[in-house]
Amino acid sequence: MSNQKQRPDRLEAVERWHSSELDDARVKMAELDAAAAEKHATVERIQADIESFHSLVREQASSTAPLHAETLLRMSTFNNFQQQQLQSAQDLHQQALRQADDAQRVVLQLFEQLSVVQRLLERRQELAGKEALRSLQKQLDEGALSRAPHAQNDTASVEDETHGS
C-alpha cells in the first residue's frame, strides 16, 4: 500500500519537473524568436540603406556634374561593404531562425512528454478511485454477510412460530 502511495507522489513530482522544463523551454523559444525578429529587422534596415545608396548613385550618375574616379571608387567600395554587411546579417538571421525552430521542436517534445506523464497520472488516479470503490463495496458486502446469519435465524424462528401455531 505504501508503494502504491509513493507512485502518485513520484508521478506528480515528474509532472512538476516536466512542466518546469516546458516553461523554461517556452521562455527560451520566445527569446530566440525575438532575436530572430531583431535580426530580420537588421536585414531590412541594411537593405533599405543599400536601396538609398543606389538611389543616390543613380542621382549622381544622372546629374550633369562629372564624377571623379576617386568618388566612383569609394562608391563601389562602400557598395561592396554594404553587400558584405547584408550577407552577414542574412546569415545571422538564418542562424537565429534555425535556433528558434530547434527551440520550437524542443518545446513540442517536452509538451508531448508532459502529456504522457499527465495521462499516466490521470489513469493512476482513476484506478485508485476504482480501487477505493471496490474496497468500499467489499466492506459493505462483508458487513451485509456478517448480518445475514442473524437475519436468517430470525426469519427461521418466525417461520417456526407460524407453522407451530
Walk me through this protein's architecture:
This protein has one domain: Orthogonal Bundle (Helix Hairpins). The mean pLDDT is 86. The chain contains two helices and no strands. It is rod-shaped and about 120 Å long. By secondary structure, the chain is mostly helical. The protein has helices at 2-62, 69-164.
Q: What are its keywords?
A:
single chain; Helix Hairpins
Structure summarized in a few sentences:
The chain is mostly helical. 95% of the residues lie in helices and 0% in strands. It has a single domain (2-149), classed as Orthogonal Bundle (Helix Hairpins), CATH 1.10.287.
Shape: rod-shaped
Uncertain segments of ≥5 residues (pLDDT<50)?
none
Q: In what range is the share of β-strand residues?
A: under 5%
Radius of gyration, in angstroms, nearest whole number: 40 Å
Order of helices and strands: HH
- Counting copies of identical and different chains, the oligomeric state is single chain
Report the span from N to C terminus. 56 Å
Number of domains: 1
On the 0 to 100 scale, the average pLDDT is 86
* CATH fold naming: Helix Hairpins
**Alpha-beta classification:** mainly alpha
Number of helices: 2
CATH domain class: Mainly Alpha
Number of strands: 0
How many strands, what sense, and barrel or not for the largest sheet? none
**Which second-level CATH architecture applies?**
Orthogonal Bundle
Helix content: over 70%
